[in-house]
């Protein structure tokens, strides 16, 4: 059974930083591309970032230069370092592998 557990969300002021983490189990992590997606209130699910099995990252345009995705295959974890946060980054952030998602972690950017 695929299991993805996110952590690290919270309330932060604009311009601040957060680091999200996701611990995965139930599949061969090193063989899987991993992603972060988010859903803001009243909006559709939005892809944020993906890291390939080889460690190559990809980002949606709105977070390029601010977010960094990384993975640790030894610990079965994928992380998302988020800097220079903006109010429009407020959303429920999910770790994803193929069609599976975790329960999400809330990120709120507000003064």
Account of the protein in words:
- Strands 2, 4, 5, 6, 9, 10 and 11 form a seven-stranded mixed sheet that branches. A four-stranded antiparallel sheet has the order 1-3-8-7, with no helix packed on it.
- The relative contact order is 0.32.
- It is an all-beta fold.
- Strand 7 (67-72) and strand 8 (77-82) form a beta hairpin.
- The protein has strands spanning 3-7, 10-12, 18-25, 34-39, 45-51, 57-59, 67-72, 77-82, 91-97, 100-101, 105-109.
- The N and C termini lie far apart (40 Å).
- It has no helices and eleven strands.
- The mean pLDDT is 97.
Low-confidence runs of at least 5 consecutive residues: none
User: Shape, please?
Assistant: globular
**Largest β-sheet summary:** 7 strands, mixed
How many strands appear in the DSSP assignment? 11
SSE pattern: EEEEEEEEEEE
Provide the residue-averaged pLDDT.
97
Could you tell me the radius of gyration in angstroms? Answer: 13 Å
Distance between the termini: 40 Å
Classify the beta-strand content into a percent band. Answer: over 45%
What structural class results from the helix and strand content?
mainly beta
Number of helices: 0
Specify the helix fraction band.
under 10%
